[in-house]
Each structure stands twice: as C-alpha cells, then as structure tokens.
Design brief:
The chain is an alpha+beta fold. The protein has helices at about 1-15, 20-25, 25-30, 110-115, 120, 170-180; strands spanning about 55-65, 75-90, 95-105, 130-145, 150-160, 190-205, 210-220, 225-235.
C-alpha cells in the first residue's frame, strides 16, 4: 500500500513540471494550425469611400446654338445616356473612356418667318423645330481636391444627325420650291462630324455607388453649327 501511495504522490508532484504546450491546445490548433492574425488598419490610411469602375450615367439639361442658328433656333432640352469605365484610378486623379448618346430638342422659327428674313440668300434656312441625335466617344480626366469632389475635363468626337421632321413631299413643294425660292439646304440630308469638350464637376454621395454632377459641353458640328449643352448628371458605378 505504501508503494502505491508513493507512486501517486510522485505523479502529482510531476504535473507542474510538464511544459504547458504539451498539455494545452488553442482553438487555432484544433482547426489544423494557427491562423494568421488580421492586419490592423493604420491610423494614416485614407478611406476613399467612393467606387470606381464601369458606370452608367444619365444627363438632362439645356442645349443651345451659338452660331448661325442662334437667332432662329431657341434654347431647348439636351438629354444624354452614357456608359463608361475608369481605366486610371488614383487617390487624386482618374481617367475614363465614355460612349455617349445625346438628343437635342429645340423649337425654331417657321420656314415662313425664315423666308421673310432672307434665309435662302444667306444659306441659313433650316426646317424650324429641330431634333438632333449625336453619338460620341469621349475621354475624361479628373482631379480630386477633396475626397468626394472631382473636377475634370472631357473631350471627344463623333457624328450628329438632324433628320427632316416634316413630310418629304410637302417639304419639297411648299418649303423649298415656294417659300425658299428653290434653295435646298443639306442640313437634314447628311450626317455631320462633331467634336465636343468641356469641364465637368462631380460629387460622390455617401451612397458610394452614386454620384451627381454638372457637365458643360461645347460642340461643333461640321456644316451645321456651334452649340453648347449644360446638363446635370446622375451616375451609378457598378
């Protein structure tokens, strides 16, 4: 009995001498090895809180002509739809490509009023009310003075169409042959190459995928006129 008591006493005294690692496992060990600890964010890290990438943008605002049609075509509405993608994304600057479609809606002087002004002598006769459709490829460059505000410039080119809105037969007889004394403009018969560019302003909302902006675009359509669009925009980045 005394020998068994002595062995038990020796075993109890030996337990504190066994290394802790030999008798204890953390929960990481039970999962098959210690997991790497998450890196803590540094105090100086900047959180941009905005999303860059592929986006869709809608524009609505005013459109006007500044050249030969400025006195006979009233300021109207400019509507735009754009898809694009940011291909350069830095904290203080970015660049993007865009494909845009714009529609211009303007009311103008009637063909009789234009005839009284002698449009067939100056070569500025146009059907009156206008609908223009423009397809553009653009590149935009922006700087960010603050976290949520972008100031930029964009420029590009494309083609504009100004289709005839009235009946072709009535246009030829009542307008061209009668009111305009045989003068027939080519504004509605052919596409017009166009270049466009101007400043942009963008504000990134706290809904990180959405931003609001203002675009001011000066455009020139060859064999048509010089014009300007001022539109507000809403952009969603996917």
């Amino acid at each position: 009995m005394s020998s068994r008591f002595a062995l038990a006493l020796v075993a109890l005294l030996a337990i504190p001498l066994v290394p802790t690692d030999a008798v204890a496992q953390t929960y990481e060990d039970l999962d098959g090895g210690e997991q790497p600890r998450k890196k803590k964010a540094k105090k100086n890290d900047v959180v941009r809180e905005i999303v860059k990438g592929t986006y869709a943008k809608a524009n609505v605002g005013a459109g006007m002509y500044l050249g030969q049609f400025g006195s006979i075509v009233s300021p109207g509405t400019s509507l735009g739809m754009t898809v694009g993608q940011d291909f350069l994304d830095h904290e203080k600057k970015s660049m993007a490509w865009e494909v845009a479609f714009f529609q211009g809606i303007n009311n103008g002087a009637t063909f009789q009023e234009q005839a009284e002004l002698g449009c067939f002598q100056t070569g500025t006769c146009i059907q009156g009310d206008l609908r223009t459709y423009t397809i553009l490829g653009l590149v935009e460059f922006s700087l960010y003075p603050t976290r949520r505000i972008g100031l930029g410039l964009r420029a590009g080119g494309g083609v504009m169409f100004a289709p005839l809105l009235m009946n072709e037969e009535a246009y030829q007889t009542d307008v061209v042959q009668d009111a305009w004394q045989g003068f027939q403009p080519t504004y509605h018969e052919q596409p017009h190459p166009v270049v466009m560019g101007g400043p942009t302003f963008e504000y990134y909302t706290k809904l990180s995928h959405f931003s609001l902006g203002i675009d001011t675009d000066i455009f020139y359509a060859v064999n048509f006129d010089l014009g300007m669009n001022i539109t507000g925009s809403m952009k969603y980045t996917f």
